[in-house]
């Protein structure tokens, strides 16, 4: 017995050593195979980035370019093929090439049913969701779009006061209240704290949304998911379950931290549910937070899936939802602030925004703030930040939408994966196999001078002026295009049936946030905008970069 244990123990280093040697070999073989593969795509489709090579050498070169210069390949493909109505293949070393359709075929792309082309599969692959989302995968939808549609978006207006209150408090905590001295702030870090508090205030309410440890864990969970996903993608399928825990260890720790706070709440709610199986004794008011929405939603289904009521699943879905809500909003807000600060019209634009907000927020913000200097009582009557007011902030809305157009954080516009077993035949007649990705690039359309006049310039009020949506709908009197309106020329939230379900919530938060910033602070112009860095199809905002700000007087 002891001897057996001993052999097992002494064998351990040998096994580890063997693994250490075998794993890199498997990886190299796998990556090399990928480098030269044609992904079973028909020869009729041209590849970009092959230079003057043809065949497998061309494909290998293209594959390498996709790592170093994806943007160059996109530009090449767009001018050479898309603009001429042709389909082309964009190599993507990390998880396989994408077939890019010309703009004229977006209609076809949108019409395909989910059992032929699936958008969700692309997201799952891009984020390697099967490995990075932990227990959220015990159910079908790790991100819960229905809860967003049926609960969050519908109830958002009832949170107007809370959001405004949290916005003001968090902004003052991060940017201070000094009206004399300019202060240098790390934009991404401070905005991350602000958006985390805003989201958490809505999802879980007070006092949890002020708990430092909880907030840190929520905003750190799968923040680096793109990196972890890229690392996992490099391994062949069979090895992924083995290596994934290594790359997701940090996230697992963050998730555990979140769940120590969430679990007791979830358990308590589930217990209460059991108790109230009997007729309720005037159950006064049921709580209005994510945990309750998740439980109500699970119970409302004709057939209740017990997994949906598993506390681990609820806690983990909460964490994934927090990630989706926090990261995308903080990135968008950070980009907008840098776009504003670096635009030549910075000061004029900001004062126009200030005037718009001050006007719409009305007498409340001016007459009721001068009475006292204490920070807590200067809050303008916050129900003024309700839906009707926000909808009148058209310039604030445009400043955000314009930033998302110019500096959206994913390159793809609409991207779907072929899931029909027999593959699919494209409008141009080429047949592509199951597993291939097909779509259009939002980045290229957003930067096309033929679609947006002077497309590379940040023009804050572009969408407030131009009621056709900047090339959107061609003539005719139409309602103005707001942040939430997606189109074939505005794909910052994707477009069609699977456009971001969180965009109404996001627009509400972002406008409340930028509105408060414009109302309460000045931003010093900067000569040059720090660049956004590309990481495969993901475009990161400036991290660690600073702006100088000062609280406005009165
Ligand atoms: C400025 C903020 C945001 C931007 C720019 C944004 C953008 C996007 C985009 C482009 C997609 C489609 C991804 C794809 O499949 O290709 C998406 C999906 C999604 N977003 Fe957002 N998003 C934002 C905020 C939010 C918020 C606040 C939430 C949650 C409250 C959210 C939840 C989701 C979910 C659940 C999906 C997946 C939908 C599905 O698979 O059907 N997003 N988002
Ligand atoms: C792709 O490569 C495979 C094997 O390497 C080959 O059998 C197939 O004919 C190629 N397809 C095209 C369209 O070149
Ligand atoms: C590049 O790599 C991907 C995956 O690593 C592979 O599927 C594809 O066939 C390779 N070739 C090109 C030119 O993209
Ligand atoms: C401003 O404050 C005064 C008194 O404090 C109050 O009567 C008035 O309604 C407030 N104005 C708004 C628009 O809330
Ligand atoms: C934008 O979206 C809102 C809300 O979905 C809708 O009411 C409005 O008509 C849309 N505007 C345009 C121009 O499509």
TrEMBL record:
Task: Report biased composition (Low complexity) as residue ranges.
Answer: 365-391
Cofactors: heme
Xref: CDD domains: CYP503A1-like
Region of interest (Disordered), ranges: 362-392
List positions binding heme: 500
Q: Does the keyword Chaperone apply?
A: no
**Record field: transmembrane:** 6-29
Looking up Pfam families in the UniProt record yields: p450
Q: What's the domain of life for this entry?
A: Eukaryota
**Is Iron set as a keyword in this record?**
yes
Q: Which InterPro entries match?
A: Cyt_P450 (IPR001128), Cyt_P450_CS (IPR017972), Cyt_P450_E_grp-IV (IPR002403), Cyt_P450_sf (IPR036396)
Record key words, sorted: Heme, Iron, Membrane, Metal-binding, Monooxygenase, Oxidoreductase, Transmembrane, Transmembrane helix
Which Gene Ontology molecular function entries are recorded, alphabetically? heme binding; iron ion binding; monooxygenase activity; oxidoreductase activity, acting on paired donors, with incorporation or reduction of molecular oxygen
Similarity section: Belongs to the cytochrome P450 family.
PANTHER family in alphabetical order: CYTOCHROME P450 (PTHR46206), P450, PUTATIVE (EUROFUNG)-RELATED (PTHR46206:SF1)
Q: What is the name of the protein in this document?
A: Uu.00g143350.m01.CDS01
Q: Which organism is this entry from?
A: Anthostomella pinea
